[in-house]
Structures are given as structure tokens and as C-alpha cells.
Specification:
343 residues; Rossmann fold; alpha/beta; Quinone Oxidoreductase, Chain A, domain 1; binds NADP nicotinamide-adenine-dinucleotide phosphate; six-stranded parallel beta sheet; 2 domains
Length: 343
């Protein structure tokens, strides 16, 4: 089996294509021929060497794929028989020709949904679903701020918010991204490079705050977010992209940001009626029922046309394609999802 591996931590040019051994299927596993693999920010962090959940090197990144079931274990449900078109979450190794996955990570997709679109769903939409609706429990009438609004998770959250009577706000890194977010229904998008989003929020909300903040940035935004919460407001922490300084890691800079990050005081949280919630999909793979239920729900929404992932662009599923995709994301050029597709 051919995989696109990271042999050592470094810039996007480190990717190499290698033949790797394909393990036997367990009775409840399927083997999927990969047609498209989603690229996630976590893949960049893993390549740099800033991702604690990454397996030992060399490994292939890739947390999600879409493709066709090639082979099914003896106890796999008939709905995932060979030939079925599917999307799946994966624990790494998605940048490959084929991948083995337990059946509860896999859901069928209809003919009407192309592989590129399906590969954009599992990670971004699972994260957004859990952050916005499951843990964040956003309710009609609430004001929600989404940091990184123009990224894959940010746009998935906006997509899932449609029709729920939520007042959505966002931050992004350029006026162009903010303009596009507002065209999608965001009440106000703040360009965090040219204005202090917290100050600008206060004037936009006339002194009021947010009921829910989705925060993948980490130490640099957390304290301001906490201060911007309404009573009984929640902040969902699911990333630390502000620790990424460029295409290579700077452990010193990252460690400084982590060490100077604000600590949460439970008594203050109690007195101010505020909630802080962490979310890490990589540590949720053991929650089979939750995973199956959430993936099943996303599969239905996708089949019904109720969610429509924003695809920014595709690159070939090759070492050179993976390198270009990672460079594109480092340069923050994406509005939506970047996907690797089989040539
Ligand atoms: N905990 C979980 O389970 C989980 C799951 C999925 C994703 N995440 C996290 O959610 C965040 C967004 O992921 P994603 O896949 O949606 O991202 P993405 O589509 O790859 O988008 C990346 C965007 O993040 C922004 N950004 C912020 N800091 C950056 C930096 N240092 N370098 C490059 N870009 C930076 C840029 O937008 P602007 O120009 O607008 O700033 C960039 O376009 C990441 O922190 C990721 O690790 C967490």
C-alpha cells in the first residue's frame, strides 16, 4: 500500500511516498480505497512536531477520508459491503491509497455526494457539531462567536448553525474573509489583524457579550473570550493554532505561550457563572456510541443536503500535493476546506 509519510518533523517539503505494510482486517473493520483525504490543521501541527497525539515517525497524517469499501471483515454490517461509497474518520494514515477503519467510524454516502465533499465532513463537522450543539448547547436567540471562522471547522459551525435562530459572529485574518463570512449570514466578522476583536465586539454588541465562543486559537484569545461571556456563557477550547508560528516549530516560543497562558480559577467561574469546556476528537475515538451516533447524524444531514461543506481547493493525493496543501494552509489562503484527491 502506498502512503504519504512524514519521515521527520519539518517543513511541507518533508513528505515522501512510501510502500507500507497493510495489516489484516479485524472482523469489524473495512478497508477503504481512498478517493479523497481531508487536510486538517492538526496535520500541519503533527508535521511540525507540535501535536502530542501524533504516532511515532514515520507515519502518514490524515484524520478523514472518502472512498469505496474494498473489503469488509466477517462481522461488518451489510450496509458497508464491498463497493459501498463511504466517508470515515481515521486515526492518521488517511493520506494513502487505502486505509483500514473500524465500522463505527464509517458511514455510507449517496451517489449524489462527491468524494471531495464527503472528505470535508468527518473532522470539521464532528468538531463543530460537538462544540456548537452537543457540548456548547447553543440555543435559539444566543450570540455565538466563532474564531477561525473562515477555516474548515469555522465554516462547518456556521453551516450547522443555519436555521437554528442563532446570532453568529466570527473572527478571521483578512477583510476579504470577513466580507465572505458576512455574505454567508454572519452578523459581524472581525478582522483580528486590524482591530481588537474583543473591543470591536463590545461596540457591535453595545456592551453585551457572547453566550458561546468557539475557540481553536488557544492561549492568545482565551482570557479575552472569558471576559466577553454573558452569565451562563460557555467557551469551547478545541485548538491551539496560535502556537504555530510558521512552517517549522519553535518549541521555545510555543512553550512560552503555554506557560504564560491564563489559568482558570473555579471560584471565579462559579461567581461569574461562566463555563469552560475542552474538546479533543483525537481523545474521543474510544467513545464508540457517541462517534457512531454523531457520524450517522452527519451522514443523514449530508445525504439530505442539509449541510453543504465549503471546499476551497483540491490538491493531488501525492507527496507534492500534500506539500502544496500544507503550504497553502500555512499561508492562511484557505476559505474552507482543502482536500487531497486521487489523480
Ligand atoms: N480539538 C479537536 O478535536 C479539533 C478538531 C478539528 C480542528 N481543531 C482545531 O481547530 C482549528 C481549525 O482547524 P481547521 O482544520 O478548521 O483549520 P483550517 O481549515 O486548516 O484553517 C486554518 C485557518 O486557521 C487560521 N490560523 C490561525 N492561526 C494560524 C496559524 N498559526 N497558521 C496558519 N493558520 C492559522 C487561518 O485563518 P485566518 O487567516 O482567518 O486566521 C487559517 O486559514 C485548529 O486549531 C485545529 O487544530 C481541533
Amino acid at each position: 500500500m502506498r502512503a504519504i509519510v512524514i519521515p521527520k518533523n519539518g517543513p511541507p517539503s518533508v513528505f515522501e511516498e512510501r510502500e507500507v505494510e497493510d495489516r489484516r482486517l479485524a472482523p469489524k473493520d473495512v478497508r477503504i480505497r481512498v478517493e479523497a483525504a481531508g487536510v486538517n490543521f492538526a496535520d500541519l501541527m503533527g508535521r511540525i512536531g507540535l501535536y502530542p497525539d501524533a504516532p511515532p515517525l514515520p507515519y502518514a497524517p490524515g484524520y478523514e477520508v472518502a472512498g469505496v469499501v474494498e473489503e469488509a471483515g466477517a462481522q461488518v454490517e451489510p450496509t458497508l459491503a464491498p463497493g459501498t461509497r463511504v466517508m470515515a474518520t481515521t486515526r492518521f494514515w488517511g493520506y494513502a491509497d487505502a486505509i483500514r477503519a473500524p465500522q463505527h467510524w464509517v458511514v455510507p454516502i449517496p451517489e449524489s455526494v462527491d468524494f471531495t465533499t464527503a472528505a470535508a465532513v468527518p473532522v470539521n463537522y464532528l468538531t463543530a457539531y460537538l462544540a456548537l450543539l452537543h457540548c456548547g448547547a447553543a440555543k435559539p436567540g444566543e450570540r455565538v462567536l466563532v474564531h477561525g471562522g473562515a477555516g474548515g471547522v469555522g465554516l462547518a459551525a456556521l453551516d450547522l448553525a443555519r436555521g437554528r435562530e442563532l446570532e453568529m459572529y466570527a473572527t478571521a485574518g483578512s477583510d476579504e474573509k470577513c466580507r465572505r463570512l458576512e455574505a454567508l449570514g454572519v452578523v459581524k466578522a472581525f478582522n483580528y489583524r486590524t482591530e481588537d476583536w474583543a473591543q470591536a465586539s463590545r461596540s457591535a454588541l453595545r456592551g453585551a457579550g457572547y453566550h458561546l465562543i468557539l475557540d481553536p486559537l488557544g492561549p492568545t484569545s482565551f482570557q479575552k473570550g472569558l471576559a466577553m461571556l454573558e452569565p451562563l456563557g460557555r467557551i469551547m477550547c478545541y485548538g491551539f493554532s496560535s502556537l504555530v508560528e510558521g512552517q517549522k516549530r519553535s518549541l521555545w516560543k510555543a512553550a512560552t505561550k503555554v506557560l504564560t497562558a491564563s489559568k482558570v480559577n473555579p471560584i471565579t467561574l462559579m461567581n461569574e457563572n461562566k463555563g469552560v469546556h475542552g474538546l479533543n476528537l483525537a481523545q474521543l475515538f474510544t467513545q464508540r456510541d457517541l462517534h457512531r451516533e454523531a457520524m450517522g447524524r452527519l451522514g443523514t444531514l449530508l445525504s439530505d443536503g442539509a449541510i453543504r461543506p465549503t471546499i476551497d481547493c483540491v490538491f493531488p493525493l501525492t507527496a507534492a500535493g500534500a506539500a502544496s496543501a500544507h503550504e497553502y494552509l500555512h499561508e492562511r489562503r484557505n476559505f474552507g476546506k482543502v482536500v487531497l484527491v486521487r489523480g
